[in-house]
Each structure stands twice: as structure tokens, then as C-alpha cells.
Amino acid sequence: MTLHPKIAAVTDRIRARSETTRGIYLDRMAAAAAEGPRRSHLTCGNQAHAYAAMGGDKDSLVAEKSPNIGIITAYNDMLSAHQPFETYPDKIRDAARAVGATAQVAGGVPAMCDGVTQGQTGMELSLFSRDVIALAAAVGLSHNVFDSAMYLGVCDKIVPGLVIAAATFGYIPGIFVPAGPMVSGLPNDEKSKVRQEFAKGNIGRKELMEAEMASYHGPGTCTFYGTANSNQMLMEFMGLHMPGASFVNPGTPLREALTVAATERASQITSLGNDYRPVSEILDEKAFVNGLVGLMATGGSTNLVLHLPAMAKAAGVILDLEDFADISSVTPLMAKVYPNGLADVNHFHAAGGLGYMMGDLLKAGLLHEDVKTVGGDGLSLYTQEPKLKDGRVVYGPGTDSTLNDKILRPASDPFHPTGGLTQLKGNLGLGMMKTSAVAAERHIVEAPARVFHTQEAVKDAFKAGEFTEDTIIVVRFQGPRSNGMPELHGLTPTLAVLQDRGLKVALVTDGRMSGASGKVPSAIHVCPEAADGGPIAKVQDGDMVRLDAVAGTIDVLDVNLDTRAVAEADLRGNGNGVGRELFDVFRQNVGLAASGAGVVI
Fold first, then answer.
1. Residue list for the binding site
2. CA gap 70, 485 in Å, rounded
3. For residue range 381-434, what is the model confidence (pLDDT) as tens digits?
4. Would residue 44 count as lying in a domain?
5. Binding site for [4Fe-4S] cluster: what residues are annotated?
6. Cis (ω within 30 of 0) for the bond into 528?
7. Do residues 560 and 471 share a domain?
């Protein structure tokens, strides 16, 4: 199928915009690759330190003829999605030995759970943890004893941070290894209803806790389509996973076999063999365009609008919000997974999942087929379905039709003709909105503003019964420079209750919302942020604000904001407690949300 002209045009635009930066990046990667296997440049003393604890693997490592795989792990057993990684290093070492390779844990990276820190002070470290993860992974890989790398990570900031590191060490081949989603528990829509009843005061904490524990109940990613599962989609669309690896449940024979297959593949694609596939050659402008298409077709997380530009920049590719908007305009919304529907990711996977979706998007000319992936050449590899045969992964044709059209539809008959994310521009600045889960009649909201500087103040106003008419709630001083840009997902039940009461409500903020948010219209990532003197710092109570996701605008009406003074907030309390002291340098040097809110890249 011929590539869609808009996809081709956006790709060409990104390539032209990135010509200089991408060229510099590739030259650096080529120079590093030309030095050959990294271990050969170490002294005998260097190598002795690296191999001292490797027991029977020492001879292979010293000979430098077999590949050594570096494992970067985000394991901890507080985070359900990462708990399965506890046993992966042993499995990877065994699988590597079976094919004549070796493997070492190169280092660990932090992995915080946004579900644990949601609405808490620790959430102010969440976005910055992405850059810490990149730094920590770089430290692990800096020992220069690895011929390829396996990255064990799943959730919100972890995968983007690992991609930044993988791109920085782009001369090393790398494979991302998922752990899979937990099996389905209490349906996400029922959990949401319980949260709303708690927000109304109709039930107590006992009932709320029972519902939460029934929803989040075992190892694996949360089953809604938030940032964690959007990350897994992204790694598959961009060719960094083994085909079909994203949504296989933890602890199953197929999950185990896919980890073995990833290890074997990591040993095959090093410079020691004849199928060298460095990350630098995989992460080109076509891979990122494919990732953007996947994000739109699935109605994925708004957090990736922050992360993708940062990931791309690490590979010398420059993305901007115009690319997101243009790709969204021609990409059909093919999936309905909570919060965009009642299904969870297990249901989506059973309906045909990513393999079916990618095959159909390729037929529609909406994806680049001619890409390099860790699995081989061509994205069509990812339309295949992994199955078990004699305990090993074998690939066969995937389904070419949806198995449940209430969850997954073809590109020719989608749930919506365009993607799930919309860019917003206006006199309030630049922002974006996730539209995939918002009812069409709520895509335009025009109402007086109520301005707040904390999400707690919004909740207090709600409890006091202050919201009795259509309202656009402005929550500012929530950007990366103010307080690290925490997610404001804790406002979702409150706003949903107001909406259910028949009010037209919307949120406008320079902060973030969770990847699981979406039923209430929300203009997020508004920049310049209030702490930078952006227009959002000039809004006053009672100003008429119009949020229009159809036209892609966000404006204060009938007011000349240039005549207004910038509001100030007391941010002194944002700099201490729960480790915030350590991140002052991040808050002082962070970039704009529109370009990824990066610190180290």
C-alpha cells in the first residue's frame, strides 16, 4: 500500500528539521561503533574487575569472542508491573549461556509508581525521575563491557528514560523486555464509579479500599490503557520489542519463552555477528512517526506527548506538537480501551491486539513498513503472532480481522476518523487535550474561570459546594519549573461528579493528567507555564474561557492579557520534603513542556 501523503509529508518535515542534529548523532554513533567490541579497549585490570564475580563465565568473557549482554533493570517489588523482573536476570543468564553468550546486570534504575504517589508530595519527583533513569542507565552501561543491552522496564517514566539511555548508547544493540499486564480484576469502570461515590461522600474508605484492591490485585501492569501500556504499544510500533511481546501476562509459559527469545536475539544482533542492529539505526524518524501513529490509533496516554520529543531528541530527531496534530488528523481511532471504553488491555489483546492493528494500518498506508527493528527488517514482522511449540516461541500469521469490533475496529471503519490527541493554541499559550475518551458534545466548553494554585484547593471548593454553574477550572503553577509537573489525576473523580450533575466543566492546567484520565475535557501541559510568566498566570476568576478541541484553540475571551500583571505564587514549600531538595537543579534547568520538559537532554 502506498504511504499516506500526510504521513509522508510529516516524515519528510521531521527529517529536514532534524538533518543537522541527526547527522551529528549518527556520526558519533558510527565513530563509537568503528572502535569495535568495547571490552577490547579495557586493560587487563579493568576486565578483571568486571569479571571477578562471573564464575564459570570468565573464560568466555576473557576470550571476547562471544557476546556479553548488559541488563539494565528497573526491578522493585513495590511496583506491580516490575515485580516479575525479580527473576529475569537468572533467566536471561541461563538463556544466554545456552547460545554461547554471557549476561551481566549492568545496573538498576529507579522505578516509582505513579499510582502510589498520585496526589502525594512524591508525585513532584515523577517526571524528573525519567531523566534520573536515563542517567542511572548510562552509569551502568559506561563500564563498556557490553555488546548489547536488554532493558527491563514497563511503566510511566521508566521506558522513556531507558529509551533516552539506549539512544545515547545507540551504537549498542538493545532490546526492551516487558513483563506484561496483570490479569483482569474489578472492571475499571466499576472502580471509577466507586471513586466517584467516595468523592460524593456516599461511601467510606473501607468500600473504596476494597474496590481499589480488587482492581490492582497482582503482578503486572495496571489493566487500563494508561502510560504504562501506552509505553508497551510504543516499543512494539517502534520495533524495540520482540513481535507480540507487549501484552502477554506475567508468569505464563509464553511470557517466559518470549524473554528467552529476546535474550537469544540480543546475542545475535551484536557487532560480533553478521546481523548488527544498533539502536541508533532503529530509532530514526520513521520509527518515531510509526510510534506517533500507534499513539493516535490506540488513543494513548497524554504523557507520551511529553516523553516522545525527549526520546527523539536523544537520537537526534526533533519532534514538535505540530507533528502530533498532523498525524492525529489522518490516523483513525481503532481501539476502545478504558478510559476510552469498557475493555481492558487483556480484552484488547484477545481481540487481535497490536498485531492486527499494525497490519491494518500498514494496509491503509499509515505506517512505514521499511524500517529496521530488533526482530529484523520490515514492520510487517510485528503482524505475526507468537505461539509456543515445544516450549519455544514460534511465529505464525496473526489475525487479519478483528475478533471483537466493540473493542478493536479496522482503519476503514474506526470508532473515530481521527486520533485521540488534539493540539490547542490560543492566547493562553500552547497545550493539548486527549479527546478519545471525551464525549463529542463536550469537545467545546465556554465558561467562566475559577483559578486555583493547588489541586487540594479545588477539592476543598468542591466539598464546600462552590461549583454550581458551568466552570473552567484553571489549576496553575503545576508545571515542571514550579513543582516538577505532577499528575493531577486525583481531580478526575471530582470533575466527573460535576459533569454527571449536568454541568459543563473543563480543566486548564500547566500540569499533567494521568494517562488513564480523559472523560472530562482537559487542556494540559499549557506552556509557557505560570512560573515562566506564561499567559495562564494572568487569568482571573470570572474570565470567560473557551476550550475548543474541534478548532484546536484555547483562549480567554474579551480580555487583553498583555495589560495584566503576572500572578505570583509562593513556591517556597515546593523545594523541600520527600527528596524535593535534591531536585532543585532540575526545576531550575528544565525545558518547556512542549519540547519534552527535559533536563539532561
1. 155, 222
2. 32
3. 999 999 999 999 999 999 999 999 999 999 999 999 998 788 899 999 999 998
4. yes
5. 155, 222
6. yes
7. yes
